[in-house]
Amino acid sequence: MSGAGTGRRIDSHVHFWALARGDYGWLTPDLAVLYRDFDREDLAPLISAAGIDAIVLVQAAPSEAETQFLLDRAAQYDRVAGVVGWVDMAAGDAASRIDALAGNPRLKAIRPMIHDIPDIDWMLREELAPAFHALVAHDLAFDALVRPAHLGALRRLADCQPDLRMVIDHGAKPDIANDRFDDWAASMTGLARDTPAYCKLSGLVTEAGEDWTEDRLRRYADHLVAEFSPARLLWGSDWPVVTLAASYGTWWAAANRLLGGLDEAGRERVFGGSAAEFYRL
């Protein structure tokens, strides 16, 4: 299935990890299909089959050591166009840490693991302001790993940091499995209408559950397309997390069908152009 016409196809959300590194607190043996190492050898045939030209590696552990691990992987694998890393944004020296990381041109963004932080307003804490200012100063983006409960705070953050380039990961993880749509949809409409935020069309199958169907995903995907438009929508696999519910190829094919109503230019944006623009690839 072609998916993105003649433009460069980019998967905006991929994870590599090595269990022996020991800093993936969330990654436990009960997540059986995920509890092993994942690296380029596993991914290469999958992106080849889908015709993906480049990927963005995204952090999966709250440590700068993992960020360096991903930057090292990027240096060794020419398909990696950029890295989304992690830094302790609440640390007193967060700005200087970002300054140092920004010296590597492969680093494109920072992602705190907000969905694991109990305080839904954490991102609005005053001590984070220097870190956000440092991101802006280095033209680094901010990946917002949030759930629907965080969207009010995210909107306030966008107002407080108007120069911050922000992308909402996984469509803000709507509760598709329980068919919770209206409040999520209203919040996403507001963010799309009133801020310059981008959004990732990723992670939906895992939020829909093991018995997901394209019909169940469709109104969520349609809403993101309608509100953010292809110009601010990035496709991502969320591999290997996606394998909790679907294979790489299954989600790739489903996304192509979900976006079947777009014209060629729109498809090229979602399947590559938007990621290239947002992450400065």
Structure, explained:
The chain has 281 residues and is an alpha/beta fold. The protein has one domain (10-278): TIM Barrel (Alpha-Beta Barrel), CATH 3.20.20. Helix content is 39%, strand content 12%. The protein has an eight-stranded parallel sheet. Helix 3 links the parallel strand 3 and strand 4 (107-110). Helix 6 (182-194) packs parallel to helix 8 (214-228). The chain is globular and about 45 Å long. Mean pLDDT is 96; it is low at 1-5.
Protein traits:
281 residues; alpha/beta; TIM Barrel; eight-stranded parallel β-sheet; 10 helices; 39% helix
Q: Which CATH first-tier class would you pick?
A: Alpha Beta
How many discrete structural domains? 1
**In terms of structural class, how would the helical and strand content be classed?**
alpha/beta
CATH superfamily: Metal-dependent hydrolases
Number of strands: 8
Query: Over all CA atoms, what is the radius of gyration?
Result: 17 Å
- N-to-C order of helices and strands: EHEHEHEHEHEHEHHEHH
User: Hey, roughly how much beta strand do the residues contain?
Assistant: 5-15%
Helix content: 25-40%
Largest sheet properties: 8 strands, parallel
Number of helices, counting only DSSP H or I runs of 4 residues or more: 10
Low-confidence stretches at least 5 residues in length (pLDDT < 50)? 1-5
Side by side, the strands of the main sheet go 1-2-3-4-5-6-7-8
CATH architecture: Alpha-Beta Barrel
Mean pLDDT: 96
CATH topology: TIM Barrel
Shape: globular
Cα end-to-end separation: 25 Å
